Amino acid sequence: MLRNLKVTLAYDGTDFAGWQVQPDRLTIQGELERVLAEIAESPVKVHGSGRTDSGVHALGQVFSCTMANPIPAAGLLRALNHRLPEAVRILAAEEAPPDFHARFSAIAKTYEYRICRSEICPPFESRYVFHCPYPLDEEAMILAAPRFEGERDFRSLATSDRREYETTVRTIFSSTLVRQGELLTYRVRGSGFLYNMVRNIVGTLIEVGQGNVAPEDVDTVLEAKDRSVAGSTAPASGLFLAGVEYP
Amino acid sequence: MLRNLKVTLAYDGTDFAGWQVQPDRLTIQGELERVLAEIAESPVKVHGSGRTDSGVHALGQVFSCTMANPIPAAGLLRALNHRLPEAVRILAAEEAPPDFHARFSAIAKTYEYRICRSEICPPFESRYVFHCPYPLDEEAMILAAPRFEGERDFRSLATSDRREYETTVRTIFSSTLVRQGELLTYRVRGSGFLYNMVRNIVGTLIEVGQGNVAPEDVDTVLEAKDRSVAGSTAPASGLFLAGVEYP
């Protein structure tokens, strides 16, 4: 009888070619499957709540997997952390109902994006922020952030790739920007996100900060349903998958 | 007429083979000399306050150098940060008297060593700490720390290498260990330090924490003048050169 597991993890994505397994590349999923196969002594398929791109970090990514090996969840957590690179840390491992799937069961996700505003970015932070020392109208950006909330068509904010979306409509429950010390932090919680959507929202907020887009023009950007009217894609280094919610 | 410069910098030493120039290796001094030569359009020799080993970080390393190029110090700072890797950041650049030398003019140095005590070390901290989740008598370690203070022969705490010391006597002005949150931080300020001395003090404090050495036995360790009686060398990742003082 196969058991189903729910595992929560954090990672520093800087030195990884993203979440998804790729031949001959260091990936988070690849490392997890390699180490789980060692522990389970048979191949284990890892289902993430979603992919993260190269250089993107996680404070609370979730994956599910099934395995026959009866190792207790607490022992599995320790065995995983013992074998994984230090840049990947398992935070929790627990038994899950048979129908739990990290991707299909998710009801909400939260992302965080960190912008460092200091003139000189400390070398211990540069892996984890987008360094933006130039002038920005932060008040305008703070006003613009909640304008992404609601059930909206986010096609203007999806980078096109080979993914086919049934719909580009998503619901954003909250979208806020706050300044704390030298960090400007954008937090967004939603039902789901299109490819590069958070980084494209941040790129659009930067355009607002530079005076190229007014806060009230966020609606116009969304209504255009055209990627070219939104801001450019903000760098991966500032982005963290903060958490995934389940019923 | 050559001008003399005093430059203060911070770096994340994880991906460097230490401070000192080595052929075909990425080093801090090597990167500084490469970039300074580009800016000055002639070779520039960098004199650090001292070497740091591979993986050791700096919050406030200092170097001096002479150059003929009249670029203002503030412009030099910006030009250096523009060309250097993000892991190395210039914090200050200023004109210095002709006799200033980062190493020979130094009167004191401060080092910081960070020990992470949480069960799971966050992946965003593991490059900057020594992860020590096992039981330690921290009270005994805190009591032992100031016992390294004073003018003492630190031969027991010097890793032998090809360096020849005129004397192994050094003066430690302060030596303290404090717990803040999940971090146990050792700070030591002294007239100078022998090779690996701070990491060997920390290794000895770990022995105290494990009950292998009593706090009052620190004197015995020092009086033995024998490297084999002290603790092992704590990992480079936890060590920061915090600052260098000049008259």
Describe this protein's structure:
The structure is a homodimer of 247-residue chains. By secondary structure, chain A is of the alpha+beta class. The first copy, chain A, folds into 2 domains: 3-96, Alpha-Beta Plaits (2-Layer Sandwich), CATH 3.30.70.580; 108-245, Pseudouridine synthase I, catalytic domain, C-terminal subdomain (Alpha-Beta Plaits, 2-Layer Sandwich), CATH 3.30.70. Chain A contains 5 helices and 10 strands. Chain A has helices spanning 28-40, 73-83, 138-144, 197-209, 218-224, and strands at residues 3-11, 47-48, 57-67, 88-96, 108-116, 130-131, 150-153, 169-180, 183-190, 239-245. In chain A, strands 1, 2, 3, 4, 5, 6, 7, 8, 9 and 10 form a 10-stranded mixed β-sheet that branches. In chain A, a hairpin with an 8-residue loop joins strand 2 (47-48) and strand 3. The model of chain A has no long low-confidence stretch (mean pLDDT 96). The interface between A and B is medium-sized, with 20 and 20 residues.
